[in-house]
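Kindly inspect the following:
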Amino acid sequence: MDIGDEAVMDRHGFDLLLDLLRRRGLRTIGPVVRDGAIMHGEVSSTADLPEGWHDHTSPGNYRLTNDEGPELFGWAVGPESWKSEFFLPTETVWRATVDNGEVTLSDVKDEPSPVAIVGARPCEIAALGVLDRVLRNGAVPDDCYVARRDGAFVVVVECGSPSGTCFCTSMGTGPAASTGYDLALTELTGPGELEHEFYVRIGSLAGAEVMALVPNRPADDVLRSRRQAVVDRATERMGRTLDTDGLPGLLARNLEHPRWADVAERCLSCGNCTLVCPTCFCSDVKDTTDVNGTVERRRHWASCFDLDHSYLHGGAVRPTTSSRYRQWMTHKLSTWWNQFDESGCVGCGRCVAWCPVGIDITEEAAAIRATDGASLMDTIAQARNES
């Protein structure tokens, strides 16, 4: 099989695929139900996947239900993004020990086992592409990230069940997968057990090598139509939209918009949105010393909602909630373009669902657009010209 080939496998073939990946020394990590949510965990067979589970989300709300249906991927995303597998929430950078008055500095970087991520959504693969641009392909690559990311095998499953907070279609990141995968699957279900199959597209040489060992049959036009129908239905059922036309400039010229003060009345400045975001990459380092004098430097995720995040000599640059929320949202949707030539948002909707007070980034952007001074002046001028 070659890159670009398309095939169809059944559930037994999916089990064999997982087995082959594990035999190659890869840790197969996929979606599992834990603590009332879709989380990441070890999966050795399709029996470990969330069969029959569906998520229901709205601003500030997330819950799971199980109708015991055949779908393994009848949900959108949970609170845990794949960022946490490659850019760890906490890790030790170096350690220094004191022995007989001499200080020894040691590198404590581990040798991470290669991983196969199974069941990632297209928006999440797009998010990894964003992180790759920053942490792997940037001017100063992050060695820890690169060590985990290189050699990873990616099985993306196209989304057939978007949630009430998803808007990946607006961001061009889903529900279909376009790049960044070894294998792209689309779950096809029917009334009978034999009609539960997976449409497979091969995206890399590694994917082709594995699929050559998995029982499959060539895709035909009928199966292509079924796969396209899954994508089309998901597009129609998207829970949110975000108008991205001129959005970077819109936010850049509205830094003093009264909406920032309005959202600050609701925002708790808790940082949940940054914790669940699949592209936020800010971090901080702290040194700790134990009773023996051993010093460890640890890196951990940080948030622009932390008061100390903007601390310079003399105090924090962004001391108010409104300024911190503005920093987060304008960075995602505006200044990210200047830095990385792409958006920092992939439309996964996690920040909407997991905000305790239900602040909706699409709603905030729309509110600023509706009262944008430049847009209002253009409308008035156009009305005058027409009259």
User: Anything to note?
Assistant: The radius of gyration is 23 Å. The mean pLDDT is 92.
